[in-house]
Amino acid sequence: MMPSSILDAAASSPNPVLYALDACDGVGQGLVLVLLLLFVLALSLAIEKALALGQARRQAAHMLARCRQTRWPLELAPHLAELSGPLLPVYKAGMDTVVTILRLDDRDFELCARQRTLPRPLTDTEMASVRNAMEQAAGIQTAFLERRLTLLGVIVTTSPLLGLFGTAWGILVAFCAVADKGHATLSALVPGISGALLATLAGLTVAIPAAAAYNLLVRQVQLIGTDLAAFMDDLLDGLRRTEEN
After folding, report:
1. Cβ atoms within 10 Å of 93's Cβ, excluding its own
2. What is the C-alpha to C-alpha distance for residues 157 and 211, in angstroms, rounded to an integer?
3. Contact yes or no for 56/49 (Cβ under 8 A)
4. Tell me, what's the pLDDT at 243?
5. pLDDT(100) > 90
6. Separation of CA 130 from chain center
């Protein structure tokens, strides 16, 4: 059990955050408010991107598994309505290029899908064209997945700097207050210093969780990029095979 005197002192002592906020001048309070808004923005961005990237990764894993279950890439075409996610535009870009190169109509395409073969093997140059088309589509999908991550990264880098600015400003205000009084006392120095430290605390409160969220989200984008690369390799390997029924 803690002595009652200690509990009474703790109960009567002011909240340190509120005390420091009250000790700040208008600049310091404005910076704390800006950092609070950045915290809310970073939290909303992190939650939104985590949900979106989680869904995209599940969709990519599902389509990659479907691709590896088939013996021929064109067999996926009749099931595109059942599929979604970042791998789908990559598949469409590759197959559209194949159709354009071989000048296939819908009937020819369906026949190739059933027979698991192409009218003729693709040359290396044509395979390179298919790869380029898929890589362009993959780049567009990656850029879409990274959308608004840049803003989260800006919050990670700028919030500690704003906190540092607030700290420097608070210390400057504290020393000016001491200079006005003509002598250094705790009552003159402590309010300004506490306000300065509050800015640092606010900046770190924003930056630390935002940095953790940013790194985790970037890792999710990288994993989806790995699935995109594996998917393209599987499709190209499948197109190189000409299997008989």
Report:
1. 20
2. 9
3. no
4. 43
5. no
6. 29
